[in-house]
């Protein structure tokens, strides 16, 4: 699978997480992953044979989860058979070939996120993508919108195409780790041509998973599981701000691009867990509302809350145990933060 640079992505920590899940509930059962992000942990849980209830507040996560949990092969894209007549064995690959070749278009991404664009709010042009790549993204995402409007693709096909487009966009974005801002000059990867590449599929245990979109605080009461894994944001910076461009691709909309960096308005996805004032209350609401008696929480040494604060909060619900893991942190390229860091895996049993 392609590398997904996402703050807090647990790709390197999944072995520890899965060991702990296995210790706590054994080899079978339902695990909730309620801040699922890229879907990395959910996919590993699926591979181990668990049923997964996964959710996140970001729309892109919803599409990643649809692919990671519910697909074992690409859907058939039957609605596009009249448009894409290619003799390749796999319709998904034919669709990608078609989208890779469509005429680039000067539209929203070109105007707001490329150096030749003229942002609507009058700020200087932005350099998230080369003008060529921005035009390709415009053409591809508007074609996907057209297929959705004409009912030529279903929900799974939409998720797979958006997932594939996001993976391709991550490869050519001119950023240092997050989409919070763009770099002043184009770096090597961003000069490459944007290309949709077929993603990998895992061919077992794709039935019975549930995917939801929304705040964990609101969904908790609707979720029943043997264990709930919580991987919250650690910092003040909101995911909705850091990954605004991925959200725009996932939603397929045309929001106002605000300020110099062109962020969409993200207030509807603002997370209380990124605030010192409301974060602990959110944890309490989630744990008390969820139909579940075992929780596993990831947290980082340099997070908003100290380990002691978290322990105090969680001990209201039951027994708390902490495992410490030494970890090389995610850093944006120009970060001066030290590289070594402790990660905590906190288990709570009611
Ligand atoms: C540390 S990341 C999770 C990373 C994930 N485990 C992975 O491997 O990709 C935290 C996630 O929590 C989500 N989030 C933040 N606040 C939330 C809330 N209140 N409810 C649901 N999701 C939330 C963010 O959108 C982000 O994807």
TrEMBL record:
Keyword Hydrolase attached: no
Keyword Transferase: yes
Keywords carried by this UniProt record: Methyltransferase, S-adenosyl-L-methionine, Transferase
GO biological process, one term: DNA restriction-modification system
InterPro entries: DNA_methylase_N6_adenine_CS, MeTrfase_D12, SAM-dependent_MTases_sf
SUPFAM superfamilies: S-adenosyl-L-methionine-dependent methyltransferases (SSF53335)
Cited PROSITE patterns: N6_MTASE
EC number per UniProt: 2.1.1.72
GO MF annotation: an example: site-specific DNA-methyltransferase (adenine-specific) activity
Pfam families in alphabetical order: MethyltransfD12 (PF02086)
Catalytic activity: a 2'-deoxyadenosine in DNA + S-adenosyl-L-methionine = an N(6)-methyl-2'-deoxyadenosine in DNA + S-adenosyl-L-homocysteine + H(+)
Name of the protein described by the UniProt record: site-specific DNA-methyltransferase (adenine-specific)
Organism from which the protein derives: Dorea longicatena
């Amino acid at each position: 699978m392609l590398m997904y640079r996402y703050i807090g992505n647990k790709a390197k920590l999944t072995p520890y997480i899965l060991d702990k899940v296995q210790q706590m509930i054994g080899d079978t059962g339902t695990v909730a992953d309620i801040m699922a992000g890229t879907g990395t942990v959910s996919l590993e849980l699926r591979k181990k044979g668990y049923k997964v209830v996964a959710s996140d507040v970001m729309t892109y996560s919803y599409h990643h989860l649809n692919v990671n949990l519910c697909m074992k092969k690409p859907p058939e894209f039957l609605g596009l058979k009249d448009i894409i007549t290619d003799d390749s064995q796999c319709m998904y690959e034919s669709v990608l070939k078609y989208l890779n070749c469509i005429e680039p278009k000067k539209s929203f991404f070109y105007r707001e996120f490329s150096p030749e664009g003229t942002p609507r709010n009058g700020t200087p042009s932005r350099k998230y993508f080369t003008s060529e790549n921005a035009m390709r993204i415009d053409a591809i995402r508007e074609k996907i919108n057209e297929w959705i409007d004409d009912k030529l693709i279903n929900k799974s096909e939409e998720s797979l195409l958006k997932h594939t487009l996001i993976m391709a966009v991550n490869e050519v974005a001119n950023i240092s780790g997050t989409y919070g801002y763009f770099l002043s000059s184009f770096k090597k990867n961003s000069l490459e041509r944007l290309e949709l590449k077929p993603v990998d599929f895992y061919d077992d245990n794709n039935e019975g998973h549930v995917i939801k979109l929304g705040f964990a605080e609101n969904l908790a009461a609707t979720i029943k599981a043997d264990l709930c894994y919580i991987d919250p944001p650690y910092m003040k910076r909101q995911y909705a701000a850091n990954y605004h461009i991925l959200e725009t691709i996932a939603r397929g909309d045309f929001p106002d691009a605000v300020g110099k960096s062109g962020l969409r308005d993200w207030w509807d996805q603002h997370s209380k867990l990124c605030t010192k004032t409301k974060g602990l209350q959110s944890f309490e609401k989630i744990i008390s509302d969820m139909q579940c008696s075992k929780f596993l929480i990831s947290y980082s040494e340099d997070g908003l809350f100290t380990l002691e604060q978290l322990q105090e909060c969680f001990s209201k619900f039951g027994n708390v145990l902490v495992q410490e893991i030494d970890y090389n942190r995610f850093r944006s390229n120009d970060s001066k933060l030290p590289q070594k860091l402790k990660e905590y895996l906190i288990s709570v049993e009611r």
